[in-house]
Design brief:
nine-stranded mixed β-sheet; three-stranded antiparallel β-sheet; binds S-adenosyl-L-homocysteine
Length: about 350
Amino acid sequence: MSALQKRIFEHIKKNGPITVDQYLNMALYDPKDGYYFKDGIIGRGGDFITSPEITQVFGELLAIFIIDQWSSVNSNYDLHIIECGPGRGTLTLDILNTLQQYQAVYERTHVHLVEISPSLKEIQQEKLAEYKNIQWHTALDKVPQCDGYTFILANEFFDALPIKQYCDTDDTTQERMVHINDKGQLSFSPPDSDNIHEACPTYKIIMDNINLRLHNAPGSFLIIDYGDEAQNRRISTLQAVHDHKIAHVFDKPGAVDISHQVNFNTLRDLVDSSILCYPLLTQGEFLKQLGIDLRLQQLLPGASAEQRMQLLSACARLTSPQHMGEIFKVFYATSRCSQ
Ligand code: SAH
């Protein structure tokens, strides 16, 4: 048993069963052994690969989108990019590399990275060392209110937040707990069923803060994540991954990545009515609209045969329905002052 596992067991023995989000908080954010507090978690050597880690084209296209949105409001405004959960900093790097090619944009750009994990912050600082316009914060509400245009970005951030689960029976709803079963193992109570609904308390905390920033101020937010807008999901979407393989949520807490499928309906309901929400797009549709095919046509002639293969397969991976093109969704919204 790992030290964290022991602590979780002792906590339950002493205080009784814990809620699912309490368990996830311990497994993900324990300051000593939680998943986000250890090294080497994202990227080829880690547990999973995210879109920006697949190809720089992802960040390049987002950078052009950001420039387009900001300049259509007022290109004399400062551009504040707030990124929630920047991981290894790859997306930030690709965005800044692209913005740097447009001096008039770049000199107005300020980046605020919201990162809870000290080890990932270190990786980001190293990777982004040449950029002097970046500030780090441990939570979104610690980022000062920004003057100018605010672009809030979150790629695979919401799926990482701890959720609660509830079991609905005929006329009652019972919160799902984590307890120690007869065999002395962690298990859910009630067990798996097709009557489960999920809720994430942190969605509201984050969206309230986004609302505050975009209320009567120009800006927008872009949320990209895996999930859907199903009205009545009735299953657990919790998923644990370790070393690119499916694991169990109770396997090695602190060593496995645990995520859920984002409920975009819930997110949309939390958006202030002063903010204009666009219909949800699939990642494939979004990247096509941003011109991923055109960007490929620009890059391919200058690439070696091997690079060409890599570029083509990377872009197909991001856009094709069999890979990340359909399961990943894009939720974009702008404040009314941006229209
Ligand atoms: N956006 C990145 C990484 C996604 S992984 C990419 O696309 O590659 C999730 C990121 O969110 C990690 O950086 C993790 O440390 C961070 N994170 C998770 N929970 C957080 C929280 N509650 N507050 C701030 N950052 C958090």
